[in-house]
Amino acid sequence: MSDVPDPSKRFSTDNSSISVDKKRRKIDQDNSLNESDCSSEKAAYSQCNYEDQSDTRAGVAGNSSRPLPPCSGDNHDVVAQNVDEQALQQEATATWASTGSMKDLGFNKTQELLIPAPSDPLESFLLFLNDDILDLIVCETNLNAEKILQQPGITDKSRITNWKELTQPSDEDRLAKIRPIVDHFNKIMTNIYSPGKQLSLDESLVLWHGRLLFRQYIKNKRHKNGVKLYVLAEPEGIVLNFQIYSDAGEETSTVEHTQKIVLKLLEEKLDSGHSVYMDNYYNSYELAVKLLDRQTYCTGTLAKIKKGNPVDLDTVTLKKGENKSVFLNNVHIGKWRDKQYVLYISTEHDNEMLEVTNKRGQVLLKPSALVHYNNFMSGVDLQDQMLSYYPCERKTMRWYKKLFIHMLQMSLANAFYLYNKFSGKRIINLYDFRLAILEKLLSKKPVQLKVLKVEHKLTKIEKVKLREKKEGNRTRTVKEIMRKECKGCKEKKKRIATSYECKGCAGSPVAPVSVRMPTPTRLRDLIRQIRAARTAAEERSVVNKECAYIRSTFREEDSVWRCRNIAKLLYIHMLGYPAHFGQLECLKLIASPRFTDKRVGYLGAMLLLDERQDVHLLITNCLKNDLNSNTQFVVGLALCTLGAIASPEMARDLASEVERLIKSPNAYIKKKAALCAFRIIRRVPDLMEMFLPATRSLLTEKNHGVLITGVTLITEMCENSPDTLNHFKKIVPNLVRILKNLILAGYSPEHDVSGVSDPFLQVKILRLLRILGKNDAESSEAMNDILAQVATNTETSKNVGNTILYETVLSIMDIKSESSLRVLAVNILGRFLLNNDKNIRYVALNTLLRTVHVDNSAVQRHRTTILECLKDPDVSIRRRAMELSFALINGQNIRAMVRELLTFLERSDAEFKAQCSSALVLAAERYAPSPRWHMDTLFKVFLKAGNYLRDDTVSSTIQIVSSSVAERQGYAAMRLWTSLERSAISGDSSDKQPLVQIAAWTIGEYGDLLVSEASNSISMADDDGVDDFTRPSEEYVIDIYQKLLWSTQLSITTKEYLLLSLAKLSTRFISQPSQEKIRVIIDTFGSHIHIELQQRGVELSQLFRSYAQLRPALLERMPPMEAPGGGTPRVDTEEDQDQENTPYTSPEHRRTDQDALLDLIIGSDPIPNGDVEHIPVTSAPAPATTTTNQDILDLLSGLDMNQSTLPTSAVTPTLPPAAPAGLLLDGLFDSQQPPIGPPAVPTALPLATVVALDRGGVRVTLGAERTPDPATVQLTMQASNHTTSQLTEFLFQAAVPKTFRLDMMSPSGTTLPPNGEITQLLKITNPSRTPLRLRIRVSYNAAGAPVLEQAEVGGFPADLFH
User: Fold this and answer.
1) What mean pLDDT is reported for the chain?
2) Basic and acidic residues bias located where (predicted)?
3) What's the rounded Cα separation, in Å, for the pair 1353 and 1277?
4) Parallel, antiparallel, or unpaired: how do β-strands 275-278 and 297-301 relate?
5) Confidence grade of residue 239 (pLDDT, cut at 50, 70, 90)
6) pLDDT for 1284-1318, tens place per residue?
7) Distance in angstroms (rounded) separating the CA atoms of residues 60 and 110
8) Distance (Å, rounded) from C-alpha 348 to C-alpha 980?
9) In 10 A of CB 614, how many CB atoms?
10) Out of 242, 906, 1058, 1165, which residue is the most buried by the measure of CB atoms under 10 Å away?
């Protein structure tokens, strides 16, 4: 853009200016229709930052103007009219230029005091509070009194004679009461003081919150609401002139009211060369021209919508620090960019840029106009700051009285400034200045009374009186010490009774001389003393001293200071010191009729009393009386105390009163009563029925406080009683309606929190909906839509919205919501994971951990984000992310998840390694895609977890290796040898001792495969296809062992593994030098300092000498080990080598229970799909005297157990069902069983059908069929679902007496749909041919709730086994 604007763009005809002016006039017309509305003035006169937010105020500067015919009698209006005519002539010919000159006016006045300088502060103050204003006050008062007293019916005793108005209101002037005071102040300042060149003009507010037609709101003033003053001041804070804004009734309230305000305030200061600094509320091109014509400069910010602004500056784009200036008629308007654009105007300063240093020490270039504006604009704000130090206004004053006092305060501040500037004496601060004035005004010395010094000996009054005291239905006599009036207090016109007297003064004509206890320390002073204590002993000394004093006042029955003493005692109790001796005093305060005493008394009761102390029963009657009080705050105190300390007995006595108050029309009492009922129900659930009728009506209230307490009360009832839960399910539509109104409601300042309407009530309602909708399809359907609406419409930029979304997610996951709604809830939690707030991320992980079992697929979508949380610096987030990651592992993502978790395990802190490694081992056992991957994962865990592995992990890994095929055993030996070699060379074997132990065992067992040429055929390629294995020699292996055995950092257990492994290698290695070297190493341990290693060394040495012939047999390879759960060892077949993509179950994960009845009785984990793997039945008799077998008999109680026990197991094993051809499950069972093909099932002959169970819509029948073997019967279990809901996790279990043998095949499924069936075959062998009796157990999940049914089955044909 060129510096010189286009000549065609004259600012007088700019379209944008015309459109803005039209909008402004329309706003002015709209505002003029409602003169009593104060809100239009709030935005109009709101302040803003002088630079960074310069156009905030300017944007609405014209909104508050109201059209009024101008006054033609003022001189400045004539001048303004002449200037307007000149401006209109110039607009036709002149344009804004990029260069120009400023007019040099020259200041022709001197800053001076026009009267002799004051000699003291009082004389300076009396310059303002002189006789004229006092005469004015007296005159107005007398005139008003005469007018009122002349009215008929006024007597000397009339009330009107005690209260009079000073002035009479005027229908023409709203400020008639205060107008003379304002004119007096302005006149005084004009007559006594001539200001300097720089002046500032701004607004000020006098605090007023009451009803007033011209009350204003300015957001960045000290008092935001009040009466607005237009103030002209010097930069030092001296007020020169001020005017009160009184709305449309004043002459300055026309369209161009800001110009008239400025000209009126500067009426006495024009034509002198003053520089006036104003903000964008006043400044305009037209005003600048008028002031310049009157020999007055103006400088300040400029609103961009003011008429006459150059159009080019609106469209110019600047970088930070750049400035653009235009000139016309000696007026300079510039646009400068700092954090945002600043538009300014000046008739004194040109476009010169000055260097300034900001508060951060940075040097910046700013226009000289803005630099001077910042330096000289703060005069009014400085005056407000000085007045704020010693405020004297009171809340109950009339507005005109507050204005009068504010004028006195301004006069005092002006006197302070003038005294320091012109007195020539030492400068004093404002406090000393005010104090000097007070000392002068109150200089009369008080009269000193001569007091005879008499030493009084005080003794306790011995005289007592008897008084009858009623206690219930009986009366007893009590003794009370006589009290006498205190003489000292009587002289002070106080009536205080005391129990002390001076006997020497008793004969005098006056009343007996007595004294009262000294005034106790105030609470604030006690707090200061305790905080000033430097040591705990000093603090205890202060507390003990104060407690002793409080005890003495309690003994003296000092009722005057009882409230203060209890307050101090409560503070001492909060510090942890004993305060039980104040309990009875709290009861006395509660019985007091004063509210202040009751408040402290009830607070003390809540802190010092509880239901374990008998004293709290004495408060019941006081509570009952206060619950019937006419004062709502007293009732509220009683309800709060009852809810806090109510015992079951007290709750039963006062529950009826609380129930009555719930129905109160007063919202405050109703809210307190509902909260008290909530605490009573929590303490005594039996009283719930009493509050049911009144509770439901709470939801019809419009008061949000009552709604919150009502929802809280209903939530507590529903959580405690299923019947109440069913009763309140009818209110779901009401809750949905309330929640919908909250969401759709507009802005309400009373309930709005960060843009959300009453989030506290929303959270309470969502929690109640969650409880009502759980396991209820109908209620859940009613709230699905509103939950979706809350989840999609709630703002997430603030924590308030996140809280509501969190409760919404919990509600969605707990009720029977739609699947799409659950996905939406999980997605919300996924967004929480991306939040910067750690607390929100932690809450999201916690909730996902609870949700992953409900909707695993939806959570899986956020797996990447969850894994990223493993790198979070917060330890709590990492822990929850780790737990959630393990919950997400399944057969499809096992490889990727384990890879990430292994990386986390390697980098994690020590506190995570144990848990993470154990979970990795379990996940690998459950979801391993192949045996080799399973083994590799275990070895990686050993390598990265180090010594943090559980002890049983070593033994379980040994069992897995021993039960593998020969080739995989060789692979394990080679892989572990590589890790062992690296650890021995790097010297970190002490940090990986579990790895050393498993490596030592494996190499000891399969060392021959490690060093033989057979190892060349085994692939050692890792995930990246790299094979870096080098076959070691026998001597190198022994050297590594020797290095490890000589290490002083390995534990004794690890060395035991190594020593035994080295002995086994003597039978695996064939060369004689190797065996001899092994013998030498073992011999050295025969003298080891540790007894265990010494014993092993001696014993193993004998195998090389006396018992050499037994060494090969004793140290031969161990057979496959049995899994921890029992059963035959599993030996992998060669076909396992090709099953890399086939689901694999490790031997440890499969359970081979010998007795299925044991699972049925002790409640062990159900076996997936009902599959059970058993060992073959042997003819060896099973012992029946163990505790386990006795426990088994408990389930079979009632069955005929008197039969002779045959040498056979109570439950026999069953063969697995036929595996599909696509699922290569070879090797999962005993190697002697055929890998493929179903077992031969003998032909069965149908016989009879028995109904075993028919409950809850589930029917189970057992169809008996004979087989060719007369001692064996086949039962077909058929389970049918006659309900409308789907049953999941269906499990059928059966038990028979010990004389029978039971084989159970796999069921056809575990999910039972409506009208569906599940079948399962049972084979029962009965060698004794006794009648068949069964005990069955059926478990399933119906509508999310577990169901367990058990029954005894009989009625089979007697000839079933014949």
Assistant:
1) 77
2) 1-12
3) 12
4) parallel
5) very high
6) 888 888 899 998 887 788 888 888 888 888 888 89
7) 38
8) 88
9) 7
10) 1058
